[in-house]
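Hello Y.,

Per our agreement to keep a running log of every chain we model this quarter, I'm adding this entry. I've kept the format consistent with earlier entries: sequence first, then predicted structure.
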Amino acid sequence: MTHPFRRLAAFVFLWIGCSTVVRAASVPIAETPNSEAAEVVVVYSRQSAESKSVADYYAAKRGVPLDQVIGLNVPPSENITRPDYERLIQDELIHQLRERRLTEFNTDISPSRPGHPGRVLYRATSSRVRYIALCWGMPYRIQHDAGYDPLHQEEAFKLIPAHLQRDEGSVDGELSILPVAGRTTAWGPIRNPTYTTTNLSVIHPTNGIFMVTRLDGPSPAIAKGLVDKALIAERDGLNGRAYFDLRGLTGGAYAVGDQWITNAATVAKRFGYETTVDSKPETFNTAQPFAQVALYAGWYMDHVDGPFALPVVEFMPGAIAYHLHSYSAYWIRSAENNWVGPLLAKGVTVTLGCIEEPYLELTPNIGVFFERLAYQQGTVGEAAVACQPVFSWQTVVIGDPLYRPFLHNPIEWEKIHAAEGNPAVEWDVIRKVNVHLLNQRDPVVLRNYLIEQPFSTNSAVVAEKIAHMFSDAGQVRPAVEWGQRSIKAGGTPQQRSHLLRQIAEWQLGVDAKGAMATFEAFHREFPGHPEILRVLGQQLELAQTLKRSSDVQRLKSAIARIQAAATNHVEAKPQ
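Predicted structure for the entry above:
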């Protein structure tokens, strides 16, 4: 295994024929301009009934024309050799696109010469489609083949640094440059000429690029659910909270990773999400309250840990989550290994990662990904292309390529949902208030605006927001009152566990008996919480202060039982 994310001292990006591939061009319009579904090709394995069922499900949900659902005779697996990729996927898909008149290609022939077989050089000249959605069962890893070396002596190959002279990569990364198949070396990364573009319309086969994502995951059911959750978010908005896990790096080769995630957090704040940013070197731990997660980005662990390793993670419909690690997507179809598979199994709608060592600067720029989704209101497919520095490399993107998580801004969403009577309006008003707070509007006026909402007292999230706004102003008693209203209104387990402890902390200085009661409520509702011993310790101190001898003995016994159980559990583990 190479050292993860080794910094590149020098790197030459290649784009064969770049002067003609990247050009100003009028982008062809699909035959049904009001339906982006007409711009999608859905690809599945004909050897897998499950793969076809995912393709059919997605096509029906999005309205993709049947003629654009294409089965390839490829074994349903995770791996494929490069010769088989070229024969069974690349060449056959080009044939199908031409046969169905979805994409037109010009072709040239590179004649054979000693040591070099001849090959066909393609260039897309027009296309009715822009997206490729690969379905569960389609391979995603092109394996290294020591015997496959057709381009080894070419001048272009010699420009690639030795450690990047690799033929393994993602199927998805190769299909991204299908419009110029044969014109690029199979070895090493290929520069993405649209990296960081804000003009998303230039991402088109006539400019050398397909937008490729996957409907994949640990099971076909999870793969199908990706479009369901995307459609819910497009109807109700991408609601919830945002969490970002930095490493606290301010310099050195790896600081760019922190900067990308910081940029993503800035997007979340500007669009009004309740945003938590952690700068400690370690990742979030299991005690970190992860309530109603809409957005997450962090790094750097090899397998899911902390709150993501819990049996249930509160991912909201449409949630986007990304963990930066060299092999985060090595096992897409595993619910336990690495990050991409487990995140999908826990309910994420969109995620992305790498299947082999990519090196940090060649991984997706998650800041750009979030920016293109939000500021340009791009689709997942568009943002995924704009955030990748290179193709023909290691990246895979999982999710509905047509999903637009930022279809409207908070003010627009509020008008839509209020008119519909959609309960998602509670998130809209919070995000709108946060945007105004970021712009230095009077917090008292904004707090009163929330209080005046007809649903303020029976919305767990709005009441909690009001509680925190009172606390921020130093008004503890109304903070406690609104916090209790939030608890009474319901809420999710992670939201309640965090808020109950927060209410008790507020009460400690003004109402010791109330704090004791709140801690007790927390203990009853969350007896297995990772920090239950700390909570019991706080209760014990309060009981001693209040001279409640029976509570003191009860709490000491409870603490002793939990400590003994923890000791026995450790001793029982095999050595």
